[in-house]
Design a protein that fits this description.
Length: about 350
């Protein structure tokens, strides 16, 4: 038994999901002829109360398309320093959209309206024009942190007032929604564009949705083609996305529960210096100074448990739908026995 806790992207489709994929009705989606893709886009949009959606190969692509359509180079994007759009998308903000980036140090990936207000450039030719704010909920590098809806509303009001676009990197938005006191529609009301990953905790093999107004999504379709993301009989994979949205949201709580259990066990182990608070399905812990954290990663790999380094002396474990109760017991037993 191999236990893969490197990411919630490692999930493979269940038999039920495969059946949905196998039976999908497909067509050429570049001609907008694939009814399964059309249904997925409509389902995602309606869940968040948005007018339209577009299915893309990856979350990086939905974010990068959103940044492109919400900006006009030269200009500047404002985000937290831990943001995926900045850290893990290959410099795409500059490469694809020709924007500068203003980084803010938030609270484990979460910004406040007043921090953003202070980061908006004055109308002065020396400075790039502030054009777009990007938030991430949950924040991966922050350890799966969840935004408070009151703060999001304040940020939205500020952006409307200052004529800035507001994008949500919602790769793991459903991990936030099942824990927080807000719904997908509440979130949809606050953002111009929303990116949602189907291939993370929701368990689809491929794909992300970008949601927004009809006008914005029409623009997005043009940009997706330029980025090389126009797909043909994509209904086969889109069917997995529909299955995921219909069946795999509520069960995210099980992943969160398992993550909390792992966090509690780690708290009491001699090689652990500290465990970051566990908010959703991401557990990050720091190894004591006297032990090189790479040796812990290697020892776990020897016991067929895969985890990843997450910064200096930090290790990340991510729970997901292929991480069973049996695997949880085995992981706990292995962690406790680690010498
Ligand atoms: C995974 C992820 C993405 C998109 O990743 P892809 O691998 O391109 O699908 C975007 N934002 C966050 C926060 C993520 O964790």
């Amino acid at each position: 038994m191999i236990i893969d806790l490197r990411s919630d992207t490692v999930t493979v489709p269940t038999q039920e999901m495969k059946n949905a994929m196998f039976n999908a009705k497909v067509g050429d989606d570049v001609f907008e002829d694939d009814e399964t893709v059309i249904n997925l886009e409509a389902l995602g949009a309606s869940m968040f109360g948005k007018e339209a959606g577009i299915y893309c190969p990856s979350g990086t692509m939905t974010n990068q398309i959103a940044i492109k359509l919400n900006s006009n180079s030269p200009g500047e994007l404002i985000c937290d320093e831990l943001s995926h759009v900045y850290k893990y998308e290959g410099g795409g903000i500059g490469f694809n959209s020709g924007l500068a980036t203003k980084l803010i140090k938030g609270d484990a990936g979460r910004l406040t309206a007043s921090q953003i207000e202070a980061a908006i450039n004055p109308d002065d030719v020396h400075f790039p024009e502030s054009q777009i704010v990007s938030l991430e909920n949950t924040c991966n590098k922050g350890g799966g942190t969840i935004y408070n809806i009151e703060e999001i509303k304040k940020i939205k009001a500020l952006c409307s007032d200052k004529k800035l676009k507001l994008h949500l990197d919602g790769a793991r938005i459903f991990n936030a929604i099942v824990e927080a006191d807000y719904s997908a529609k509440d979130i949809g009301a606050e953002f111009d564009t929303i990116s949602v990953c189907l291939s993370k905790g929701l368990g689809a093999p491929v794909g992300s949705l970008l949601l927004g107004t009809k006008t914005d999504i029409k623009k997005a379709r043009r940009i997706r083609k330029i980025f090389g993301g126009g797909m043909r009989q994509a209904g086969y994979i889109a069917a997995a996305g529909i299955y995921a949205l219909e069946n795999n949201i509520e069960r995210l709580r099980e992943d969160h529960h398992k993550a909390k259990e792992l966090g509690n066990v780690l708290e009491n182990l001699s090689f652990v210096k500290k465990v970051l608070p566990v908010y959703t399905n991401i557990v990050v812990f720091e190894v004591i100074d006297s032990i090189d954290f790479n040796t812990i990663i290697a020892k776990l790999a020897d016991k067929h448990i895969k985890v990843v380094a997450f910064g200096h002396q930090q290790i990340r474990l991510v729970t997901h739908l292929n991480f069973t109760d049996e695997m949880l017991s085995k992981t706990i037993e292995t962690l406790k026995g680690l010498k």
